[in-house]
Amino acid sequence: MDLAELSERLVPFCREHLGDPAATVSNVETMPGHAGFSFGFTATANGESRSYVLRVPPPNVRRVGTADVIRQARVVHALRDTDVPVVDVIWSGEDERWFDSPYFIVNKLEGDVLRSDWGWDMPAEEMRPVAFQAMRALASLHLLDWREYVPDDGPPLELEPDVTRWDRFYERSGDMDLVALAPDVREKLLERLPEEPRIGIFHGDFQWSNVFYSFDGTLQAVIDWELWGVGATLNDLGWVITFADAEAWKHGLRHALPSPDDLIAEYVDTYGSDPGDIAWYRALAAYKFGIISGFNLYLHRSGKRPDESWEDTALSVPFLMRRALEVLDGG
Questions:
Q1: What is the DSSP letter of 150?
Q2: DSSP at 53
Q3: Interior CA angle at 192 toward 191 and 197, to 5°?
Q4: For residue 275, what is the enclosing H or E element?
Q5: Structural contact between residues 220 and 213, judged by C-beta atoms closer than 8 angstroms
Q6: Which residues of 151-168 are buried (b: 16+ CB within 10 A; e: fewer)?
Q7: What pTM does this model have?
Q8: Which of 32, 142, 196, 207 satisfies CB 3.0 to 4.6 Å to 233 for a cystine?
Q9: At residue 56, what are phi and psi to the nearest 5 degrees?
Q10: What digits encode the pLDDT tens for the residues 150-170?
Q11: Does domain 112-328 have CATH number 3.30.70.3040?
Q12: What DSSP designation does 159 have?
């Protein structure tokens, strides 16, 4: 729906849920990063104005997986009294009379994600404590007993399918030369599957654009829980470290994040014990993103999903694959 229609729908919703028949809605806007399915707005009711963010699934898709917004709201709500900072879920529901779909609404935060001009321009001495907050939040998430917080969301995902499920995307790379090392990485990952991975709640896309800070550098919330699940928690650590590892990228990194070793040390210190074979999960993350980049390059070049940025990102695919082999070998 367009913003004018959404504005009209939000007025009766807010009047009912805020208990003010004269409530008004303003500043309705499309929020970044969600392909038009996350909207900000301000509601004024009972003499007070507050800003919110509405999340709805994409139209005309099955409401499962990343399109299951109620599932996202459920985990965020479950984490509200833990050491994992999350937004407050103000309303959620499956009553489609409001927006023609399930929905959830959270309070709108003031600040920005770390992967932004605000964050990336931060000097190293300021960046260090800011980034460490994210690592502590991640370890705190992984320490939670999933059976207590999300008991209906098991059983845990297995590791071998998390390697082999990328085969079909590898075969559709936009440039097979870029993924030439992928079969070697795949083989080594399967040879070295962790035997007893630590199981818990994982975020699924824990990276620097999904940690939201106030402008004084305080972590306010881990956001965007579309890919959360129950399984090997170190998937999250491997993923975020890959995006902090200059050796995994052709052009290095433009930000002043702490080194992978320092970030890992902060995570382990909060976790309180040896979390397992971190190198394996770092290699898996590099392997995944390398294949994802090659596949998105194919979608771009074929005209199915044009996005020129993948031409540049895909240049790092050989570096990602080489880095995966290096960390598996102890580099």
A1: -
A2: E
A3: 140
A4: none
A5: yes
A6: eebeebeebeebbeebee
A7: 0.94
A8: 142
A9: -130, 160
A10: 998 877 878 999 999 999 999
A11: no
A12: S
Per-domain residue ranges for the chain? 3-107, 112-328
Element of type H or E holding 198 = none
Is residue 233 within 8 A of residue 200, CB to CB? The reply is yes
Domain at 3-107, CATH homologous superfamily: Phosphorylase Kinase; domain 1 (3.30.200.20)
Residue closest to 231 by CA, chosen among 192, 264, 194: 194
Does residue 62 contact residue 124 with C-beta atoms inside 8 Å? Answer: no
Inter-CA distances, 119 with 113, 116, 138, 211, 322, Å: 7, 5, 19, 11, 28
What is the average pLDDT across 142-150? 97
What would the two tokens of residue 1 be?
Answer: 């729906």
H or E segment and range at residue 45: strand 38-45
Q: Are 266 and 136 in contact (CB under 8 A)?
A: yes
Confidence grade of residue 109 (pLDDT, cut at 50, 70, 90): very high
Q: For residues 157 and 165, what is the distance between their CA atoms, to the nearest angstrom? A: 12
> Is the Cβ–Cβ distance between 264 and 313 less than 8 Å?
no
C-alpha 77/C-alpha 88 separation (Å) is 7
**Residue range 26-54: mean pLDDT, rounded:** 89
Radius of gyration of the chain (CA): 21
Task: Give the type of residue at 56.
Answer: V
Q: Are 250 and 312 in contact (CB under 8 A)?
A: no
pLDDT tens per residue across span 60-102: 788 878 889 999 999 999 999 999 999 999 999 999 999 999 9
